[in-house]
Amino acid sequence: MEYPAEESGFRYIPFRIYQTTTERPFIQKLFRPVATDGQLHTLGDLLKEVCPSAIAPEDGERKNQVMIHGIEPMLETPLQWLSEHLSYPDNFLHISIIPQPTD
Fold this sequence. Notes:
Blueprint: E1 13-19, E2 26-31, H1 43-50, E3 64-67, H2 79-86, E4 93-99
Parallel strand pairs: 1-4
Antiparallel strand pairs: 1-2, 3-4
């Protein structure tokens, strides 16, 4: 995917979140990579808005692993960067939410 030189990024990023722990096997939407105040949205921002159960509370134990292309990116990674470098040929950012095994 490319964007015009006069723009600083994509208007929307198409994504699909796959999850096995709910009755909805996936969530598919468009998400703006830049907030209204000009700040770049991160992977954590996307998950907080669309799938808050996927991320641990600030003081809580991590229950899920967030994977893209078999790697676990930091939640602070900008969505624009993820989309430019990790989108599939269909231009979607495919994100898997994998429950952590319990001991």
